Amino acid sequence: MRIFKERTEWFDIPDDQDKGRLKIKYLNHGEQHRLVSGCVERNLVTNENTNKSETNNKHDDIKLIETAVDMRIVDWENIIDDETGKKLECNKENKIRLNDLNGFSVILKDMIDELEKMVDTEREREVKNLPASPGGSPE
């Protein structure tokens, strides 16, 4: 079994006059599962018809989006506050502000999709080159 290293990549924000860049983190399946699970409120309720306990799951979509944005964006360059003209600190509050801008979530999703393709390609190459893997080099 291989444990792959944490993977991040810098991406330029398209058509940004300040040449802003974001450092995006790849989330593996376990991290994605913990992210989603952490944004679900589970309540035990009793079904009045059967008198049995059931779990009622309520998804907090806002918490999921805000937590995902915070986990995915790990750093940035040249993100400027339009009101003050100063560079914004890369923190959760400012990440959420950035994500709330019209059209930004689409840009972020495109960056995440591109990073996931890059990671998939790298992993396929790494696995293919393992000596014990089918199709891998025996040398």
List keywords for this structure.
two-stranded antiparallel ribbon; 139 residues; three-stranded antiparallel beta sheet; flat; 4 helices; single chain; 5 strands; alpha+beta
Overall description:
With 139 residues, this protein is an alpha+beta fold. It has a domain at 8-27 and 61-124. 39% of the residues lie in helices and 21% in strands. The protein contains four helices and five strands, in the order ββαββαβαα. It has helices at 29-37, 61-72, 92-99, 104-128; strands at residues 8-12, 21-25, 40-46, 53-59, 73-77. Strands 1-2-5 form a three-stranded antiparallel sheet. Helix 2 crosses helix 3. The radius of gyration is 20 Å and the shape is flat. 9% of the residues are buried.
Compile the SSE list and pairings.
Layout: E1 8-12, E2 21-25, H1 29-37, E3 40-46, E4 53-59, H2 61-72, E5 73-77, H3 92-99, H4 104-128
Antiparallel strand pairs: 1-2, 2-5, 3-4
Q: β content, as a range? A: 15-25%
H-E string: EEHEEHEHH
Helix count from the secondary structure assignment: 4
Low-confidence stretches: none
Rg, rounded, reads 20 Å
Mean pLDDT: 88
Order of the strands making up the biggest sheet: 1-2-5
Structural class by sheet pairing and helices: alpha+beta
N-to-C terminal Cα separation, in Å? 19 Å
Largest sheet: 3 strands, antiparallel
Task: Give a count of the beta strands, DSSP E runs of length 2 or more.
Answer: 5
Shape descriptor = flat
Summarize the amount of helix as a percent range: 25-40%
